[in-house]
């Protein structure tokens, strides 16, 4: 059976060029980057060149790029260190953040009693910016704002320029999880007043287990992991050279092909929307995920008209038909909690229906979409 992958928001297919580059480094440049001999210097050169390249893509200094194991570690590093080192006594976030942020904030709150405020979320998945400004205005303590650029479940795009401007106005630190945006959108951090970001390579056709954080120069953050002096002292431990090189190559290719691939992926998404509406009566699209301006072109979150007793087997049915995608509600997961994101925006009635996230890449085809819609249509008609 042919298998079809519609779960690129979870992780992407690694580009062949990236694999080739990583294999070359594993074979030829296996020295420890901290070693002073030629093998070590060669490995170190790969790391620093990648750092310079990534910094150039984002409009920042190479010294402001710190390699991590991925977005979750980057989120943890920034949020924990900001509270410990920067005098932060108040965190403003939202309830639709990635768990790498939410769970970190909740743990800090339980351990320290730090004040945490949550920005309200509208039915279309956007934040209440007026309330956000009110939270900033009324804060009497040093504040860290942590809001993701693109939501990983519903695709809503944060007005990052507005948030950055307000944080600057009220003298708050601004951290953004940019895991779903870097590699898919051109971002010039030199034009945005932002202090910290988190990024993962495996979201833009790079390897898993590698990412980075941008830490604005002279931020005052201190390390969480101690040992050697790697990564400007922020993160001790021997660097994963092949992964860093792979991430650099993946990001280079993503931005080199950005316009072409974005147009193609957007056309796939629009085709999917049009044909779902034609073939499945009462289909709904969660949040504003059909909005090509205010939601990312890379994913679609669909609420399907399926009875409660059959909702739990939908994801399994798709899987056995060769379709990989992600669940979006308790009906599919078997969990009483379900999606914390959808719980904030959907009615109780719609939460009982299965919501599925389909996320796209340049490797998907229109033929695959036709197949997915036929499988969905038959499942719904049979129920």
Strand content: 5-15%
- The CATH C-level class name of the largest domain: Alpha Beta
| Element string (H = helix, E = strand) | EHHEHEHEHEHEEEHHEEHHEEHHHEH
The assigned CATH architecture of the largest domain is 3-Layer(aba) Sandwich
**Helix residue percentage:** 40-55%
What is the number of helical segments per DSSP (H or I, 4+ residues)? Answer: 14
Overall pLDDT score: 95
Number of domains in the coordinates?
2
- Provide the CATH superfamily of the largest domain: Type I PLP-dependent aspartate aminotransferase-like (Major domain)
Q: Please state the CA-atom Rg, rounded to the nearest Å.
A: 21 Å
Query: Which sequence of strands runs across the widest sheet?
Result: 2-8-7-6-5-3-4
Distance between the termini: 24 Å
User: What is the overall shape?
Assistant: globular
Number of strands: 13
Q: Describe the biggest sheet?
A: 7 strands, mixed
Structural class: alpha/beta
Report the CATH topology name of the largest domain.
Aspartate Aminotransferase, domain 2
Low-confidence stretches: 329-334
């Amino acid at each position: 059976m042919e298998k079809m992958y519609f779960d690129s928001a979870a992780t992407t297919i690694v580009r062949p060029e990236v694999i080739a580059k990583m294999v070359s480094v594993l074979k030829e440049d296996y020295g420890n980057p901290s070693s002073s001999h030629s093998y070590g210097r060669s490995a170190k050169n790969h790391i620093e060149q990648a750092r310079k390249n990534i910094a150039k893509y984002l409009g920042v200094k190479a010294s402001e790029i710190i390699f991590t194991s991925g977005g979750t570690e980057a989120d943890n590093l920034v949020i924990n260190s900001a509270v410990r080192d920067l005098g932060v006594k108040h965190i403003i976030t939202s309830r639709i953040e990635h768990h790498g942020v939410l769970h970190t904030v909740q743990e800090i709150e339980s351990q320290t009693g730090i004040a945490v405020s949550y920005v309200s979320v509208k039915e279309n998945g956007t934040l209440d910016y007026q309330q956000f400004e009110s939270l900033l205005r009324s804060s009497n303590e040093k504040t860290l704002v942590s809001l993701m650029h693109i939501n990983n479940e519903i695709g809503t795009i944060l007005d990052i320029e507005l948030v950055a401007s307000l944080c600057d106005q009220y003298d708050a630190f601004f951290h953004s999880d940019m895991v779903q945006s870097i590699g898919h959108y051109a971002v010039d951090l030199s034009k945005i007043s932002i202090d910290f970001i988190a990024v993962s390579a495996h979201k833009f056709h790079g390897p898993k287990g590698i990412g980075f954080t941008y830490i604005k120069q002279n931020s005052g953050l201190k390390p969480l992991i101690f040992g050697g002096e790697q990564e400007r002292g922020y993160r001790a431990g021997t660097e994963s050279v092949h992964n860093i090189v792979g991430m650099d190559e993946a990001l280079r290719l993503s931005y080199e092909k950005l316009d072409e691939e974005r147009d193609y992926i957007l056309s796939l998404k629009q085709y999917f929307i049009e044909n779902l509406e034609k073939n499945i009566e009462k289909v709904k699209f969660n949040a504003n995920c059909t909005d090509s301006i205010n939601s990312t072109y890379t994913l679609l979150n669909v609420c399907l008209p399926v009875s409660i007793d059959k909702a739990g087997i939908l994801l399994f049915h798709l899987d056995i038909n060769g379709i990989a995608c992600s669940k979006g509600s308790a009906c599919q997961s078997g969990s009483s909690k379900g999606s914390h994101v959808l719980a904030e925006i959907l009615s109780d009635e719609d939460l009982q229906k299965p919501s599925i996230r389909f996320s796209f890449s340049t490797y998907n085809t229109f033929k695959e979409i036709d197949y997915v819609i036929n499988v969905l249509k038959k499942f719904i008609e049979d129920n």
